[in-house]
Amino acid sequence: MFRQSPQAAAARLEQLAAEFLAGPANDLEMAGGREPAFGPALFGYAAGDDPVWLDFKEAVAPRYWSPKEAFEKTFPGQAAVAGDLSVVAWALPQTEATLRDQRAAKEFACERWVHSRYLSQPRVVDGLARFLLDHLGREGVAAVSPDHLPDFTHWPSDRFTITSPWSQRHAAFAAGLGTFGL
After folding, report:
1. Measured distance CA(100)–CA(48) in Å, rounded
2. Between β-strands 42-47 and 161-163, what pairing exists: parallel, antiparallel or unpaired?
3. Alpha helices in the chain (DSSP H)
4. Which residues are CB-neighbours of 153 under 8 A, at least 6 positions away?
5. Spatial CB neighbours of 72, under 8 Å, sequence gap ≥ 6
6. pLDDT per position as a tens digit, 127-161
7. Any idea what DSSP says for residue 39?
8. Radius of gyration of the chain (CA)
9. DSSP labels for 125-165?
């Protein structure tokens, strides 16, 4: 993968994600048989030296990790050049069936949404991250999932109630996937 163009590397990651999402982990676990919890992943990419990482550090907390810091926590002794790092982010959209049911829901979230959010999301998001890390590692690519590092934690914040040293939502924003939540 080191010798691939950025476009070829991105296509490979997106192919791997599609394979994972076609498998048994991406399941709503509802009565009636297997049903995908999420649709095809939407990918975005950000440069490790994008100034937005400094903006996050300033807005969130000085101990918020830059991509370089997260990389060096994973690979101690391997100095990283921020400009050589790429941040890969993905969003997992709801399926058309979940969107349809959610539109019809009047008082509470629909059953499909509840299953996707609380039962499937942790398994699928964590599973996809580990699946990609495993494949990248076998292909000789040093990669990290910052929110799976032993140092990842949450702490109280006067400004945000609670915060952490890395945010998948911030990474998605930096990678051009938009904003999520409030």
Report:
1. 38
2. unpaired
3. 6-21, 52-59, 67-74, 96-104, 111-114, 121-138, 168-174
4. 164, 165
5. 78, 79, 80
6. 999 999 999 999 888 999 999 999 999 999 888 88
7. -
8. 18
9. HHHHHHHHHHHHHHTT-----GGGSTT---EEETTTEEE-S
- CA–CA separation, 153 and 35 (whole Å): 33
What separation in angstroms does the CA of 105 have from each of 65, 71, 109? 39, 43, 6
| 27 φ/ψ angles, rounded to the nearest 5 degrees | -135, 135
Q: Two tokens at 155?
A: 């702490």
- Phi and psi at residue 72, to the nearest 5°: -70, -25
- Asked if residues 42 and 84 have their Cβ atoms less than 8 Å apart, the reply is no
Would strands 161-163 and 155-157 be described as parallel, antiparallel, or unpaired?
antiparallel
Tell me the two tokens of residue 102: 């959610």
The per-residue pLDDT for range 107-117, each reduced to its tens digit, is 999 999 999 99
The structure tokens listed for 175 are 């990678």
CA distances from 64 to 85, 143, 165 (A): 17, 19, 4
pTM as predicted: 0.88
Measured at the CA of 61, the angle between CA 58 and CA 67, to 5 degrees, comes to 80
Q: Please name which of 19, 8, 74, 66 lies closest in space to residue 41, comparing C-alpha atoms.
A: 19
